[in-house]
Amino acid sequence: MYDPLVNAPPGPHDAPGASYWQLHTQAEFPQCADAPEDVDFAIIGGGYTGLNAARTLAENGHSVAVFEANNLAWGCSSRNAGFVMKSTGRLGLSAWAKRFGEDVAKGIAQEHGLGLRLIEKTIEECPEHCQRQSGGYLKVAHKLASVTPLQQQYDSLRQFEQPVEWLDNSALSQVIDSPQAHAALRFTDCFAVNPLLLAAATARRAAKAGAQLVEHCPVTSAASLGKKGVYLETAKGNVRARKLLVCSNGYTSQQLLPKLASRSLPVLSSIITTPPLSQEQADSIRLSPEYAIMDTRILKYYFRLLPDNRLLFGGRGAIQGKNAEDPVFAKRLLKAMHQTFPQLKDITQWDHFWSGWVSVSLDDYPRVGKFSDNIYASMGYCGAGVSFSALAGQRLAECAMGAALPKLPYYQSQLKPFPLPKFRRLAQWFYYHYGRLLD
Ligand SMILES: Cc1cc2nc3c(=O)[nH]c(=O)nc-3n(C[C@H](O)[C@H](O)[C@H](O)COP(=O)(O)OP(=O)(O)OC[C@H]3O[C@@H](n4cnc5c(N)ncnc54)[C@H](O)[C@@H]3O)c2cc1C
C-alpha cells in the first residue's frame, strides 16, 4: 500500500483499497474535468477537505481546480467509519480550557457545531440522506476504572452546554451487551453516515458551484514563484495558479512537500467487517445500527452495526504501508471484537479489511491556514475529520481568499515540526507498546 513517508505521490490508478463502502455503495460522483493550464486556485486532494474548499472558492466566483491522484475521495474520505462527531484532534473541551482558557474552549465548541451543521446541509441535498443513522455517538467506558473519568468529562461537557446524556450501566445494557461496556457518554446530536455517499454529495455540490474536479491526476511537484503564484507539475500537464491549497492530509507525500509533511505523522487506521450477523447474533449483542460507538482505550476501538447487519470494527493498523494488508492486523481486530462481544466468537473470518492514512499532529490538534508563500494547508485531524473537514475546507478557502479566520489555535499557528522526524515511526512503535500495556 502507498506509504506517504516512503513513496512519491500516489496515483494515477491505484485500487480503491477494498473498503466495504466502495463495494456496497452506488455513489453518484459528478463528471470530472480536464486539467486546466491556468486557474486562480489549485487544490491538491479530492477528499472532504479539498472538495469543501473548492465549493467555497467556486461559490465566491473564483476559478478553482481540484487535482486528485486517483478517484475522487480515494483517501480517508471513502474509507472511514462514518462517525460524524463534534470534535477533531485528541483534545476534549476541558483539555482545551486547561491549555488555552474557557473562551477558547467555547470558541472551539462553536466551530465544531458549525462543522456538524455543514455536514447536515450536504446530507439534506443527498436523496438517501447519506444513510444517516441518528442514535448518537457513544463513548463507552471499556473498564470500570474508566467510568469516573468519563463521568467527569460528562460534567464538563454539560458546563459547556453540549447536548450529552449519561448512560449508567443499567441504561447502557439496553443499548449494548458487552463485558467491556460499563457506562457511556452519549453525544445526542452526533450521528453516523455512509462516508462514500457523503463524499459523492460533497463532490456534486463542488461541481455544481463551478469547481473543476480532475481525477487520476497526481501533482508530482509544486513550487511557489513568489508574486507569480505557484507552478505545479501533474500527470496531466503543468498548471499555473495564483494560490495552492494542500488538502492531501494523511496522504501528503514526504517527497512532494517535505517541510509540510515533516509536521505530520501518517498513521494507519484499519477496519474489518464481519459477514452479515444472523438475527440471533445481532440480538445477542443487542446493538442497533443507530449508534456509533468508540471505547475509552488509549488505542481506541470503534464499531457500529451496518444497515445490512454486518458489524464494522476498527482500530489501529500496521505502522508501515508495506504491511498494511497483512492479515495479522485483521486478526488483531477480530480478537478485539471477540473481547468486546464474546457472543460472536464463532465468527472467525472477516468479509472486508482495509486501511487508510490519518494525519496525527505533534500536539494533538489540526491546523488550517497559510503555510508559506502562496501555499495554504489543512491537516492533522488525528483520525477525527469527517465533520471537521467540511469546516476546515471552508476556513482554508476563506483564508486563501484573504479573510481573517477566528482567533482560535486551529487557525492562528502552524503545525509543530516533529523533533527528529526520521524517527517518527520508532516513536509510534513505542507509543503502541505503551498504550497496549496501559489498556
Ligand atoms: C479507517 C478510518 C476510519 C475513520 N473513521 C472516522 C470516523 O468514523 N469519523 C471521523 O470523524 N473520522 C474518521 N476517520 C478520519 C477521516 O476519514 C479523515 O479525517 C477525513 O476523511 C480527511 O479528509 P481529507 O479530505 O482531509 O483527506 P483524505 O480523504 O485522506 O483525502 C486526501 C486525498 O489527497 C489525495 N492526494 C494525496 N497526494 C496527492 C497528490 N500529490 N496529488 C493529488 N492528490 C493527492 C489522496 O489520493 C486522497 O484522496 C477515519 C479514517 C480512517 C482511515
From TrEMBL:
Classification via Gene3D superfamilies: D-Amino Acid Oxidase, subunit A, domain 2 (3.30.9.10), FAD/NAD(P)-binding domain (3.50.50.60)
Domain FAD dependent oxidoreductase, first and last residues per copy: 40-398
Record's keyword annotation contains Transferase: no
Protein keywords: Oxidoreductase
Record keyword Oxidoreductase present: yes
Domain of life: Bacteria
GO MF annotation, one: oxidoreductase activity
GO cellular component, one term: cytoplasm
Database matches in Pfam families: DAO (PF01266)
Protein name: Amino acid oxidase
Lineage: Bacteria, Pseudomonadati, Pseudomonadota, Gammaproteobacteria, Alteromonadales
